[in-house]
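Q&A log
Question type: sequence-to-structure
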Amino acid sequence: MKYLTVDEVVAMHSGVIKQFGGLPGIHSFDLLYSAIERPKATFGGDDLYETIFDKAAALIHSLILNHPFVDGNKRTAFVSLARFLYINKVKFMANQREIVSYFLNIEQKKPTIRLIASWINKHCQ
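Response status: OK
Response body:
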């Protein structure tokens, strides 16, 4: 399994802000680091997030709800999700309307990791 690094996510965030606008900057490096490391979490030597979809869900859940960046957290979460799946040879196939709607849903209704993972799985090849 390949994981994203903090530097990669910061670079993706910069690209998102340059392309779509918004305020640059990291609100909390600790929250950013926590979000990036969450998919790797273990307990007793076992992965807390077993599947790639669980790991992807943990990543975007944390990026959206922890608000580690000043602006563009949901957009950065999407780009991070797509990149994480891509480097692990999984193709994400949701359209823009579905993505915007679901990412707003994550922010507002705070679904479980399992529900987010199921949504991601349904939109992958």
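Response note: The longest helix spans residues 6-20.
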